[in-house]
Amino acid sequence: MFFFTLLSNFQMYAPLKLSIKSWAEGDRPREKLVNKGRSALSDAELIAILIGSGSRNESAVELSKRILNTIDNKLECLARLGINELKEFSGMGEAKALSIIAALELGRRRSSSIIDSDSMRIKSSNDAYCLFRSELDDLQQEEFWMLLLNRSNVVIKKVQVSRGGLSSTIVDPKVVFKIALSNMATGILLGHNHPSGLVNPSEEDRRLTKRLKEGANLLDLVILDHIIVGANTYFSFADEGLL
Q1: Phi, psi of 216 (to 5 degrees)
Q2: Mean pLDDT across the stretch 109-132?
Q3: CA-CA distance, 105 to 23, in Å (whole number)?
Q4: Where are the beta strands (DSSP E) in 28-176?
Q5: pTM of the complete model beyond 0.70
């Protein structure tokens, strides 16, 4: 009887879980955004605004922190999570998961539109990486793209060649050269991603690059580089003397 009385008293005086609405106005993410600007908010606070609410056990900010903690607080890792993966977190339903995915996709598209807003002259491997990155970042499957250039190394067109699985994608050289010739390109920049985040080229990457370079020479085309996009980094065949 004494134990149950003690437990009852403990529950009576135990601190109640505070919702975001009960926080000081200056600490609430939405009010903080309005009064202090977006840069004043942490990643967790911005995500909390997207998901709108937490659960009876934790606030939206605490839920956001828990999600970020599992991915080492890296937004690029968050962008790779799918709907089902996000829904595995307690308190995350489909609507909240979709809000996060949609917001990150808008950010990716904005970045892509800024880079592609004008014809760009490629001056370095980093220039090529920036253009490929806007398409290949955060993907869970491997994709192969190419940039078509004129004689001044100005980008004519960016084209997706193929889309594969987690570790590979099939690239047909005939398709690559048909697209290049039909667009009157003189130079080609190849690019694909490694969903693992590691950028070291595989033996298949090396063989494909060699085949495409040999085929291009026969058609008076030039393979200028092959970029492998990874986690915030890239590998350049040209920079490494492999072309």
Answers
A1: -65, -40
A2: 76
A3: 31
A4: 143-149, 155-163
A5: no
